[in-house]
From TrEMBL:
Keywords: Metal-binding, Zinc, Zinc-finger. Residues 2-93 form the Formamidopyrimidine-DNA glycosylase catalytic domain. This is Fpg/Nei family DNA glycosylase. It comes from the Bacteria. The keyword Lipid metabolism does not apply. It holds the Pfam family zf-FPG_IleRS. InterPro entries: FPG_cat (IPR012319), H2TH_FPG (IPR015886), Znf_DNA_glyclase/AP_lyase (IPR000214), Znf_FPG/IleRS (IPR010663). Residues 243-277 form the FPG-type domain.
Length: 292
């Protein structure tokens, strides 16, 4: 799933290539992806892209005051095309293509644009056309951005205070903190040397400060690695920079212990026992319930 660093990098990529260009049209292939009908998607035709922003894991293209807001969900991606002039017309079907955004030709006659794709059978990619991004329910419900100056240690302490939620689940909750998903929550907790099952309300002031440092540092380092990369290279860069996520069975780069995996909510998490849980493997609670 694209998370804050990748979405911010995609926003930067589009700022360089799409801002200032006129939208020729938006062709929606997966009609279930389009979540709004007024204004219609055809209203974007003829408008100029004046800015690109990020709200959590949402991309926001400002087109002369009308916003094209995109959420790539778990398996979505943005694929830039230098020239769409010869592309075949889009047709609804079972392929990965969800939508195509066509831009006006440049001075060399190339008509660039981008395609939104989504792998797998669970289609959750979402497209909104709105006059105000805050009218998108997911954007309106977002918690604070962890890279905002207002996200201080004191702000994190207020978020954690009294919560009986496991810290892994809290980090993934977009209504609590915006932009962190399954991968970077694993990375943050490894950097903070903290068990993913630790209850948020039990954290000491020192642990909260360590967690805050891990959140900000992990995300900023990921953004620095991705800075300037083409959209097509961001997935590989994310994978190469992960220390524990999706590395079960491999040695920890910090201590050499074997990285473990357990089920968590609707997915799984990876962690290092030596770095995070005092050397003790976590019980796979989903498996334990099945065995009862």
């Amino acid at each position: 799933m694209p998370e804050l660093p990748e979405v911010e990098s995609l926003a930067g990529f589009l700022r360089e290539r799409a801002v200032g260009r006129t939208v020729l049209g938006v062709d929606v292939v997966a009609f279930s992806a389009l979540k709004t009908f007024d204004p219609p998607v055809t209203a974007l035709g003829g408008l100029t892209i004046t800015g690109v922003a990020r709200h959590g894991k949402f991309l926001d293209l400002d087109c002369d005051g009308l916003h094209l807001v995109i959420h790539l969900a778990r398996a979505g991606w943005l694929r830039w095309r230098e020239d769409l002039s010869g592309a075949k017309p889009v047709r609804p079907g079972k392929g990965p293509l969800a939508a195509r955004v066509r831009l006006a030709p440049d001075d060399e006659g190339l008509a660039p644009g981008f395609e939104l794709t989504e792998a797998g059978t669970q289609k959750r990619l979402a497209i909104y056309v709105t006059k105000n991004p805050d009218d998108v329910p997911g954007v309106a419900a977002l918690g604070p951005d962890p890279l905002d100056d207002a996200f201080t240690v004191a702000a994190l302490k207020a978020i954690l205070g009294g919560s009986r939620t496991q810290v892994k689940g809290l980090l993934r909750d977009q209504k609590v903190i915006a932009g962190i998903g399954n991968a970077y929550s694993d990375e943050v907790l490894h950097a903070a040397k903290m068990s993913p099952f630790k209850i948020a309300a039990t954290l000491t002031d020192d642990q909260i400060a360590d967690l805050h440092e891990a959140i900000v540092t992990t995300l900023r380092e990921a953004m620095e690695r991705a800075h300037g990369l083409a959209a097509k290279d961001l997935k590989a860069e994310k994978k190469s920079g992960l220390r524990v996520h999706n590395r079960a069975g491999q040695p920890c780069d910090v201590c050499g212990d074997t990285i473990r995996e357990v089920s968590f909510a609707d997915s799984s998490l990876q962690y290092c026992p030596t770095c995070q849980t005092g050397g003790k493997p976590l019980a796979d609670r989903r498996l334990s319930r099945l065995l009862k």
